[in-house]
Predict the structure.
Amino acid sequence: MKPIQLSEIKPVTLCAGFESKLIHSNSMTWSFVHSKAGHTLPAHQHLHEQVTHIVQGDFELTVNGTPHLLSAGAVFIIPSNTVHSGKSITDCDIIDVFNPVREDYAKLSAQ
């Protein structure tokens, strides 16, 4: 095992306005997201449990139809197979952790 430098990871585009630097372990995916103000993440769901941490900015996270305004320091746990979407109110830095590994993200980071 060796340290990982985020500055050395090439970002990938998750969707318009959302770029991420991805790290994968045997059982988790860490996604270091930068999003631009006004951009939206479409409604979706996945089998992964997700923990979202707002590092910087204001983000509206909608989970099962209920909007939650999250600001720096907020953490939200999204259960497996739960419909969610989001909107960056300001530019945001977000850390998303997924269990198990997001295989779709692993393919993105391998490109």
